Amino acid sequence: MTSSGNSSATAGRDAGPDSGAPQAGAPQAGAAEPGAGATDGGVTDARAVGSGVRLHASAPGWAMDADVVVVGSGVAGLTVALRCAAAGASVTVVTKARLDDGSTRWAQGGIAAALGEGDTPEQHQHDTLVAGAGLCDEHAVRALVTEGPGAVHRLIATGARFDSDTDTGQILLTREGGHHRSRIAHAGGDATGAEISRALVDAVRAAGSAPSPASSSAPAGDPATPTAASQGRIEIIENALVLDLLTDAKGCAAGVTLHVMGEGQRDGVGAVRARTVVLATGGMGQVFSATTNPAVSTGDGVALALRAGAEVSDLEFVQFHPTVLWLGSDAEGQQPLVSEAVRGEGAYLVDDEGTRFMVGQHELAELAPRDIVAKGIMRRMQERGAEHMYLEARHFGATMWERRFPTILAACRAHGIDPVTEPIPVAPAAHYASGGVRTDLRGRTTVPGLYACGEVACTGVHGANRLASNSLLEGLVFAERIAADIATLDATDPHRDPNDRSPSLNDPSLRPNDRFPSPNDRSPSPNSRAPIGSGQAALGEASDHDALGQPGGPAPATPLLAPEARFAVQRIMTLGAGVLRSAETLRRAAEQLDRIHQDAAQALEADGKTAEPGVETWEATNLLLVARVLVAAALRREETRGCHWRDDCPAQDDEVWGRHLLVALRPDRSLAVRTTQTPAFPPVRRGPAESLSANPPPSQAPSAASSAVSATSAGTAGAAGAVECSPILPTQEP
C-alpha cells in the first residue's frame, strides 16, 4: 500500500526521536516547562502515565465484537473501515450522528495533491512546510505529498467524482491560500466534501451488505476494489457517542464504551470489544462560540484519548479561518464558511472604505497562508474599530457564482447577502485543530492498539498552521497507512489465535474499570450482540457503574457538567484563547475554566450529586477537558507562531520554541508536559517486539520537561509500557 519512496521517511520518523542537543534557552530535560512548575522533582515521561477515571455512565447493557472499531465517519474513518474490510477484517463504525453527517461533508474547497502538469510532491511539500511555520514533521509531510496523488486516484476508484474538463476529462484544479500552484481538486464546484462523503458512505454501506468472507486467502488485487472472498463485513452504529476506551491488563486497547441515542436493539450504554480502536472523531471547534464546525465537533476523541493516557500535542494551534460569513457580534454555533477557493478564483479583501489591505503584507496577498490572512483581517478590524471586513467578488458575475460556488451563494443569500451585487461581510472563526492525539507515521498513538487519524490526530503534517485543503488528504493518506499497519502487525504476530477476536468484558485481563457484569455472555460470534439482562448491572462490583460513583463504589474523580456549562466554556475560550491571546487573557481563561470544574467537584463532594449522565453533559465535560489543555499549552508557548498569536510575545522564537509540547493526564488530574527537541516527534514506544524498548539507548531517549497543572480528568489506560499488543486481524495483506 505504501510506495518504496516512503520507506525512508517512515524509518526516519519511527526509528528515533528528534536529534541534536537542546539549543540555548530551550526547556531542558528534568527542568520545569516554561510557565509551569514541576511538582515531583523529576522528569515524568508522559507516555507512562495512566489512571482509572472515566466519564460517569451507567453500566453497558449490551456488547458486540469486531476486529476493528472505527470511531467517526468522515474521510479518515470511512477510509480506514474500507481498507480494513478489504483485508478481510470485521469492522464496526461508530458515528455520533448519521453516517453521512461527519465533518467531511462540510469541506468546500477541495483536496490538495500534486496532480497537475508541472506540479511535483516537492513543490507541495515546500508550501506545506512554509505554512506550518517551522513545526511540521518533514517525514510526515513527505509521506503526505508523495502518497497523496495515488490516494486521490484510489478515492476516485471508490466512486468519488471530481470536476473535470468536459473535453479532455482532466481533473480541474484551482488554487488556494499558501499554494504556489493550482493543485486543489474540487467537486460540485464548492461541494467537495459532500461528494467525497457520498462516495465513501456508498462504499461502506455496500460493504456492510456484502457476504462474510468465504475464504481466509486474499486474492491479489487493488485493496480499493476487493472481491467477495476477501471482503470483511462493516457494521454501522449511528447516533452513538463514544465514551471511553476499554483496555486490558497490559494497557492495550480492547474496545470502547458508547451510548446509542435512540431506541431499538442497541439502545443506551453498550460496548464494542475489539483489539484495535481507530479514533477518527474530527475536531473540537465547538470549544469556541463561533466555528465552522458542526455541533457534533466537541473534542470527544481528544478527551477520550487523554483519559486513556495517550499523549496529545499542539492543541494551542487552532486555525481560525479568515473568511467566515459574519452573522453579527452575538452569533454562536456553526457559521457558514466562505471557502478560500473564492479568493483562489480572484476575490479580494477590502475594509469598510473599499481599500485592499493584504497587498504588501505578503507576496501572495489574499492567498497567503490562513494564519497570515486571519491576522491581517484582525489588525485591520482593530485599526478601523470594525467587527468585520469584506470579501469583494462582485466581478465574478451571476453565472460564475452559480456554476463555481453554488453552495456558498445559497448560504449567503439565505442570510440576506447577495455576493453578486454586494461584498460579503467576513471575519475569522475557529475552523481546524492542527494539533490532536499524537501519532507516528503509522497512525499509532502512545496507547497500544489505539490509532488516530484525521483532525483528531496530530501526525506532524500541519505544524503550527495547516495548509489549505491538506486536511482531506491527510485523512485519506494516514487512514490507508493505519489499515496497512494493522494488517501487517497481525500478519507478523506468531502468537495470534485466529479464533480469538476480543476478550469477554468479564475477562480478568481487562482493567477493573473496564469490566461490566455479563452473566449471559457466551462468547458471541463477531458482530453479534450480547444483551445484558436488566437488573444484572447491580450485581457487578467491578462494573463501570460502580467504579464511577454509583452506590457501592467510590465517588467519581471527575463530576459531569450541566449542559449549560458548554456555553460558559465557549464564551471563556472565545474571549481568552481566540485569535488574539496574551498571558493575561489566557490566565483569566484558565482560572475561569478551573472554577467551573471546582464548583462541580465541590457540589459532588458536598451532597454526592453530579449532573445526570447524558449526551449533553458528556459533551460539556469533554469540552472543558479539551479547553483546559488547550489553554495550558497556549499559556506555555510564549511566542507567536502560525495560528497561535500572542499579543504579549509577538515574535517567533525558533531557538526556544522550535519544538512541540506533548501533554498527557496524570492520575492526580495534573498535566504531564514535556517538549521535543526539534520539530520532529519522538517515536511511539510500543513494546519489546519493536526496535524501541521501554529503555531506549541514550541516543534515543527523548528530552522531557515535567510540569503539573490542574486538569479536569485523569486517564484510564497505561500510555506506554513495555508490552506487546498486536491487533487481531485476518492474516491477508491489504
UniProtKB/TrEMBL annotation:
Residues 17-44, 517-529, 701-722 have a biased composition (Low complexity). Keywords: FAD, Flavoprotein, Oxidoreductase, Pyridine nucleotide biosynthesis. Pfam families: FAD_binding_2, Succ_DH_flav_C. The active site is at residue 370. Residues 1-44, 207-229, 489-560, 674-734 are annotated as: Disordered. GO terms for biological process: 'de novo' NAD+ biosynthetic process from L-aspartate. Pathway: Cofactor biosynthesis; NAD(+) biosynthesis; iminoaspartate from L-aspartate (oxidase route): step 1/1. It catalyses: L-aspartate + O2 = iminosuccinate + H2O2. Its EC number is 1.4.3.16. Residues 568-685 form the Fumarate reductase/succinate dehydrogenase flavoprotein-like C-terminal domain. Catalyzes the oxidation of L-aspartate to iminoaspartate, the first step in the de novo biosynthesis of NAD(+). Belongs to the FAD-dependent oxidoreductase 2 family. NadB subfamily. This is L-aspartate oxidase. It comes from Streptomyces zagrosensis.
